[in-house]
Design a protein that fits this description.
alpha+beta, Heat Shock Protein 90, Helix Hairpins
């Protein structure tokens, strides 16, 4: 695993990184809901012709309402005028009584106008520009974060490949300077080892970058964990590690069982490495739980733990504290879990151990 401190540090790795993999066109928090609500209010349809017809019908309905209003109010004004000019007109008839129905109906006409034109005008003039400005800020921030991640990854890849290549080059040069040296065989072995190291890192990097195909099917989560345990049994026995299965059965999930088995096997392998410095009572506890529409697998060891300053980096590509590690195992595991709609939590204390939690959604 990677080594932990005298306080518990929890890190939740959610699907936030998915936005980093996209083109940055993600709605900021809060605006997506409003955007969807306005689409519903407009009754937008994927068919632009149907949407245009509805808008034209709504506008025609308003103009029909306006013409009716103008015609009837004009008629009432004429009646008011005629009755007020007659020889037998009462004093009340001379007052412009038609203004009262004109005012009441006018309020309704104004409401109709706002429903057809006003809300759209207000949204286009005030709301949409605010959304676009916020989106621009979000895209700029995400682009900066993405560029920083790319720069860091590029630097790490260059470092991981340059060092063994430089070492192999130096050894080959020495072999060329003295082809008959008895040390050339040893030089060749070391050079091949360095080149194998480069090849191994590149293959892991390609696996990490590759968009793999997933074969989802219903699977029992406890069975998947047990298969990973069986795969690592020989290594567990060789390291003298006891495993406690704190479950009898597990929930059924929809998953690619083979890829999840790789995740659990990787966690067990890391736990075994973390227990290397423990003299006695090397132990790994496994838990399979479910509730609140999700399943959780917890892998806990009593190993060396992970320092607090390294906890947040353990899922970064190429980050490792192992001599022969590639630093991609946890990054690949995180990618697989997120492809299942899940997340990884990690908690650790230096000298006391580490616990990884794999949280997966249950099928509806």
């Amino acid at each position: 695993m990677i080594p932990f401190c005298h306080f518990k540090h929890r890190v939740r790795w959610d699907a936030r990184l998915h936005q980093l993999r996209d083109d940055g066109a993600a709605w900021p928090h809060g605006f997506h809901h409003h955007r969807r609500r306005h689409r519903d209010d407009d009754h937008e349809d994927p068919d632009p012709v149907a949407r245009a017809r509805r808008r034209a019908a709504a506008e025609a309905g308003f103009y029909g309402h306006l013409l009716s209003y103008l015609g009837i109010i004009a008629f009432l004004a004429l009646v008011n005028l005629v009755t007020s000019l007659g020889p037998h007109a009462s004093p009340g008839a001379r007052h412009p009584w038609f203004l009262w129905p004109a005012l009441g109906w006018g309020i309704g006409l104004f409401s109709h106008y706002m429903a057809v034109f006003g809300s759209r005008l207000l949204r286009e003039r005030f709301f949409d520009p605010a959304v676009e400005r916020e989106l621009g800020r979000q895209r700029a921030t995400m682009q900066t974060e993405k560029q920083a991640s790319i720069d860091e990854l590029s630097s790490t890849i260059a470092h991981e490949i340059r060092n063994p290549v430089a070492a192999a080059k130096s050894l080959v040069q020495q072999m060329g300077e003295d082809p008959t040296s008895i040390e050339n065989v040893e030089y060749a072995k070391v050079a091949l080892g360095e080149l194998d190291r480069v090849e191994r890192r590149i293959s892991h990097l390609l696996r990490y970058a590759k968009e793999e195909d997933y074969s989802f099917a219903l699977a029992n989560l406890a069975t998947v964990v047990d298969s990973a345990l069986a795969q690592m049994r020989a290594k567990l026995d060789a390291a003298g590690v006891k495993v406690a299965r704190n479950y009898i059965a597990g929930p059924t999930i929809r998953a690619d069982a083979e890829k999840l088995r790789q995740v659990f096997a990787n966690l067990l392998a890391n736990a075994i490495d973390a227990l290397g410095s423990v003299i006695e009572d090397r132990r790994i506890d496994l838990f399979v739980e479910n509730g609140d529409r999700r399943a959780t697998v917890r892998v806990r060891d009593n190993g060396c733990g992970i320092p607090a300053d390294k906890v947040e980096r353990i899922f970064n590509p190429f980050f490792t504290t192992k001599e022969q590690g590639t630093g991609l195992g946890m990054a690949i595991s995180k990618k697989i879990v997120e492809a299942h709609g899940g997340s990884i939590d990690v908690a650790s204390e230096v000298g006391r151990g580490t616990e990884f939690s794999i949280i997966l959604p249950l099928p509806r």
